[in-house]
Amino acid sequence: MPTVNITLPDGKVLSFDGPVTGLGVAERIGARLAKDALGVKVDGELRDLSAVIDRDAAVSIVTYKGRDGVVSADALKLVRHSAAHIMAEAIGRVVPGALLVYGPALEDKFYYDIKFPEERPLREGDFAKIEEEMGRIVSEDRKFTRYEINPEEGLVRLKQEGNKYKVDNAERAMMAAGGSSLGTRHSALSFYATGTPGKDWEDLCRGPHVPSTGRIGAIKVLSLASSFWHGDENSDRLTRVYGTAFATQAEMDAYFALKEEAAKRDHRVLGKQLHLFHIDESVGQGLILWTPNGGVVRDQLQKFISEELVKQGYHQVFTPHIGRLELYKTSGHFPYYKESQFAPVIEREALEELSKSGCSCSEMMHRVEGVSARLAATINERTQKQTITPDRVLADDKLVEGFMLKPMNCPHHIKIFASRAYSYRDLPVRLAEFGTVYRWEQSGELNGMTRVRGFTQDDAHLFCTEDQVAAELIGCLSLVKTVLGTLKMENYRVRVGLRDPDGKKYTGSASAWDKAENACRDAARTLGVAFSEEPGEAAFYGPKIDFVVKDVIGREWQLGTVQVDYQLPVRFGLSYTGADNKPHVPVMIHRAPFGSLERFTGVLIEHFAGAFPAWLSPEQVRVLPISEKSNAYAHRVAGELRARGVRVGVDDGNERVQGKIKVAAEMKVPYMAVVGPRDAEHGTVSVRVRGQEKDAGAMALGAFVEGVAGEIAGRVAGLGVRP
RNA sequence: GCCGGUGUAGCUCAGUGGUAGAGCAUCGCUUUUGUAAAGCGAUGGUCGCAGGUUCGACUCCUGUCACCGGCUCCA
């Protein structure tokens, strides 16, 4: 029998006289490890502890916590996938006739997609019963037992069970096995019994699993959702049951504590508490009303960004919220993106005429989407192909004119560029606008400020020569660096979207693409943060750079983007005069590095948990008189602060100072200035700094005013004013 | 859009077919206060909206609107 040499993570080699199981390896290392082991990793592949290793391999034993005390992601995967089986069995007992589909482990939970009988859907009211059943299965500590049967037999068996989903799973597994180098392992179908095959509950499953159900210390059903088979909305609708599991109850408690922590930072909750914004049914879903406090935050952000743009040579422009349909037919936004746009606004006269002539809805849409022969010819000539197909061309008297709520700012900015002649000496031209756009997001996708239907982008369009692209990209990224640095959101990464090597959909020459892609890479490097290259992620009109920030509790948020565009300048026939006195097509760069003010503010609220730095705070100082007797002095203090541009409030109500402090703390006001007769006499204020338990002490009013004003002017991230 | 949940006072939430409630906020009175809520009183609701069942509906049914969680990290 050939010797099997097992290399452990520390480099030590154990020799066995023949095939050995993962458990066997663990036992050789130590009894304690064998007891704690949940699974095994063989040459990097996660397997059952009972898996037989019959060749030399690098092996590590998977336990819940490694020596460093960190919970192993592999262990959680084993635990959660096993938990999915336990949940499925429990559900099967509670709701007979439910067909299992697919149940993987996720990052912090697991789910099982299940087809429930029409007459017996699963409800949240069933959770308690399911959890009771799961508890029973865990306490029975049944072994997860793997066995394999040949595909033909397996398929027959699955078909007998009448579960087309599992049959499909098996067929897919066989297909995958056919193309896999690991063919031997997949040439059979594997089943797992939660206990004894033939007697206990079984499921077609690739595995791996923990050794037995008792190894799952905590398991819970979380929620219900709907999903589609294979994620295809035209396919069967399934019910997705989410749950989570941990090896210990303490870990699960910690998980829910963290969830609660995140919930407290929820910008929708804080937005209400701190009166930052309001969404009103009668205005419309996904439409943000910025209330005065939120208005301050937005205004400060805009001012900050605007100042930086001036430094970078941008020009501020302003454009209306709507534009003629023809504009968007020229740009290609309509009707191409019509599903994600608000419906066009049709001119009244055209509408009346249509209704008089008895025009049907579909006919009307056709006439709204139609393009005049003149425009079609122009665009086809400019793009040198049949961009506008003949079926969209209509006689002028058939065309229905109208306007669109703008889904993008670029067409308006392009028209500003085109409104005068430029020479190469004038380039680059940088047009910036906090431009409000409207998009028809699906109602289920809407979410507070982070996913809305009307939003204001920190938008700009740069028109430059091909040679200037690289420098302009670097400029865009340096702005991001400055802004995120000032906000102390320095944990972010960028994604560089490149063209697919063999894609044909792209416009622009290959050499221009190479140049632009290299420029994107070079620009990303100048940031000094992690960046990834993602082939195939470019837009069809040019490469792009996306920004993703990580907030203080580790969640990632996709913000804005910088995109190089060869397409629109062509469609709009833009040109500048080159040194050769000939017309040249400029390259356009679209950039909205913070995405939208709505999303960015939402992310900021969560990042700071509502406790903004002083310069962003709606109320920067609140003056708290000890009693009515000190009200006059309190207002004098406030007056001096206000004169230096500080946003200050006075709580001169008939409450005790303890109460005033509590309320100001809840509103997360950065500084409180408590004033009583003593302060009035000495010209001081007693300072309280947000986040600190105690009174920081008294300081001269003048010094306090200057300290706060200076901190605000410097956009300092922390609260540094102290006596 | 789809599945499940939720919708009651400005906010947070009780209320399982028989006269709509609490705390906070607001307003008034008392207190004149030195560092995370002093006391008393008052105001405030078409119970999301529209139908239906019933002697009677916040409660049960149907529809509708909105919000929340989710809608593959591929056996």
Provide an overview of this structure:
- There is one protein chain.
- By secondary structure, the protein is an alpha+beta fold.
- Strand 32, helix 20 (631-643) and strand 33 (648-650) form a beta-alpha-beta unit.
- It starts with a strand and ends in a 10-residue tail after the last helix.
- The protein has an eight-stranded mixed β-sheet with strand order 17-23-24-31-28-27-25-26, with helices on both faces.
- Mean pLDDT is 88; it is low at 179-186.
- It has five domains: 4-63, Ubiquitin-like (UB roll), CATH 3.10.20.30; 74-258, Threonyl-tRNA Synthetase, Chain A, domain 2 (2-Layer Sandwich); 296-303 and 423-608, Bira Bifunctional Protein, Domain 2 (BirA Bifunctional Protein, domain 2, 2-Layer Sandwich), CATH 3.30.930; 320-408, no CATH class; 614-713, Anticodon-binding domain (Rossmann fold).
- Helices cover 36% and strands 24% of the residues.
- The chain binds one RNA strand of 75 nucleotides through helix 6, strand 13, strand 14, helix 9 and helix 21.
Concise summary:
By secondary structure, this protein is of the alpha+beta class. It has 5 domains: 4-63, Beta-grasp domain (Ubiquitin-like (UB roll)); 74-258, Threonyl-tRNA Synthetase, Chain A, domain 2; 296-303 and 423-608, BirA Bifunctional Protein, domain 2; 320-408, no CATH class; 614-713, Rossmann fold.
Descriptive tags:
36% helix; BirA Bifunctional Protein, domain 2; RNA-binding; Threonyl-tRNA Synthetase, Chain A, domain 2; 36 strands; 5 domains; five-stranded mixed beta sheet; 723 residues; alpha+beta; Ubiquitin-like (UB roll); eight-stranded mixed beta sheet; globular
